[in-house]
Structure formats: C-alpha cells, structure tokens
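Protocol step 4 of 6: structure prediction from sequence.
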Amino acid sequence: MRSWSSPSVPALDVAGPPVVLHDVATGRRRTTEPDGPARLYVCGITPYDATHIGHAATYVAFDLLVRAWRNAGHEVVYVQNVTDVDDPLLERATAVGTDWRALAERETELFREDMTALRVMAPDHFVGAVESIPLVEDLIAELEARGTTYRVDDDLYFSVTSDPDFGAVSGWSRDEMLRVYPERGGDPDRPGKKDPLDCVVWRAERPDEPAWDSRFGRGRPGWHIECTAIAREHLGGSFDVQGGGSDLVFPHHEMCASEAHAATPGTPFAQTYAHAGMVAFDGEKMSKSKGNLVFVSALRHAEVDPMAVRLRLLREHYRSDWEWTDADLFTAVDQLDTWRRAVAVGSGAPSEPVVAGVLAALADDLDAPTAVAIVDRWAADTLGVSGLADTSDRHAGDAVSAVVDAALGVRL
C-alpha cells in the first residue's frame, strides 16, 4: 500500500539524549536501547470514516518518537497497518451504499492527506490487511503446527492459554478482560470456544462478505492476527516499541503479543508498549460510534492552519486523556503566530538552552508540553513581552525554527 511523503526535516547540529518511554506493560519508565535501527509498530486506521482529532493525537504522538529517535542518532524503521477489511468498514459501506473497497481507498487517501498536512513522518511500511493475507496465512499455519488453534464451526480460533504470559501487556484481571472484551470486538459468549477470551484468527466466509482462498478455507483474517503478522514480517521476531491508542491495550495488543509468543516461545513481541490517551469532545470520548467527532479535514477545509492543529495537540502530554474545545484551538492559533513573529526577528534570546531543552523534553517520555513551554518563554523573551529581551544571539530565530521543526514537527 502506498504511504504518503514525509516532510523535509532540518538536520540539527546537536544530538538529543536517549529516549525514555513509559512502558505500559511494566508501569515503569524504560530507556529505549535499539539494537540497530529503532523499530516501531503503530496500529493504523480502519478506513471507514475520516481522520478525527483522536486519531491525529495518536499519530502525532508517535511521530514525536520517530523524531526523538532520529535526533538521538538512530535510524528508524516504522511500520503502520491499515485494516482495510473488517466488520465496521463493511457495515459502513452497506449503510452508505458503496463498495467497501472504494470506501477504504477513499478514506485511506484522506488519511494520507491529513498526515501530510500535519507533517507526520511517513511509515517505511504502510501495509493493508488485504495485502497481508499471505503473511497472516503463514502465521496461522505456525500456530496451528504448535497446537494453539482450534475450530468453532468453520472459524479458526487462537487459544490464549497457550501463552503463559497472556495478560502481561495490560496487567488486567480476568474479570476486567471479560467485561471489556465484547465492547471491543470480542465474542466471549460464543458456544464451542475453549475459553471466552480466545480470539478468531481466520473468519470463514459469510454471505455477501469478502473472502479469500486459504489453506484454512475461504474467509478473511481476524483483527489481531493481522498486526502480529505484519510486525513480524517487517520488524522481525522482536522490536522496540508497540504503539497505539490506550483503547488498544486490551484486547488488541494483548492478543497480538500472545499470538507472537505462541508462534515463537521465549521471544518477546515488543520491548516497550506505549499508548496515547483518549480525546473527548462534548464530555465524552471522541468516537465514531458516538458521532462526537472533530475531523482534521474539516478544520483544514475551514482554513485552520494545520500547524495550529498540531500545536494544539502538542500542548497535551501524549499519555493524558483530555478534551478538545474550539477555544483551545484558537489559543494555539495565537500561540503559533507568536512563535512565527519571534523567529522572524532573526536575532533574539539565546537559542542554545532552547535547543537543548526541547530535545531533552522530547526524549523524556515525549514531553511535548514542556518543550512547548520552553519555546513560549523564548518567544516572550525575544519579543520583549517579559522585559528580558536579549538580542545577543544573532541566529536564534533560525536555530529555534529548526529545532521546533525537527523535534516538534511544527513548521514556522
């Protein structure tokens, strides 16, 4: 699948520190220590509607990680999937009376446009579920050979008890899992399952649904197995960071890890699990099912500068849950204008502490709010708002503009 074009990013004269992330699986901070290129997998969209602010917050968050790694001197291999065949997509296509393939391509293209506008670095591998079916088939065959799958009617299930570490990613109790599972695509009450938490890896063909030939019969992949197969293919048996929204901790990331563990016992799937918080609007989590969405494309078409949208997102720590308001967006619009006026001065307050501070903040669990505050103080000093203007740094504007672009992704 075609990705989008990455923005041109300035090269900095100084390197950033090693990147530390909060690891959801252990609840502790962990210094990422890539062996070779830093390897990142972020779960992508199911393309049945346009990119909303919740999506944007997640992908901007992991864009900060890509940038922090690169600024620390690492090469990066970044993989993102697109679930371009799944129940929500098929249901949406039926509801609006269009072909599911056309809907998926249209919304995927809109997502590409939104990511380009927000200056998000493109993944090296942008992989659709449909094109990954051969990879899924091979992985299921591995699991089958190890005795970790079984049939319920014509569907093929993965047995979660085959992984002794099942539950280690989320840390949830069984009761918590059973409560949430049906809300997030699971079928705990299906007769014939060995365990209510077992997940489908190959869904047999249903009437009027797309299906593909396989050694398991005609059908299509389950949700979780898609990401497991893609990550193993492009990142190897174990990789540095698994990322996504916090609503993916269970069941999605838990199931992905267990499938990988069962296929390759003793090999961890991801070294670190990092998750972005949820964005609310009108008092509830922003979601397609509730319809309380703010679309990136709608803001773009209303001539809101995408850099102001990105800056609004950067004002929140990526792990925080927060609420979107128009007032906060307008604040970000004004803030962006202030930054641009400050760098346009050319000379200004000393830039060296700004560059070092921004890079350090982003390396410290992607602390964008602290980085934003550092640039705010520099802009205020440079414009004389605080009465501390210092014009001794003749190249301050260029240096600050470069680090804001390279580390925060905001083009000034």
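Step 5 (inspection) to follow. The two ends are 31 Å apart (CA to CA).
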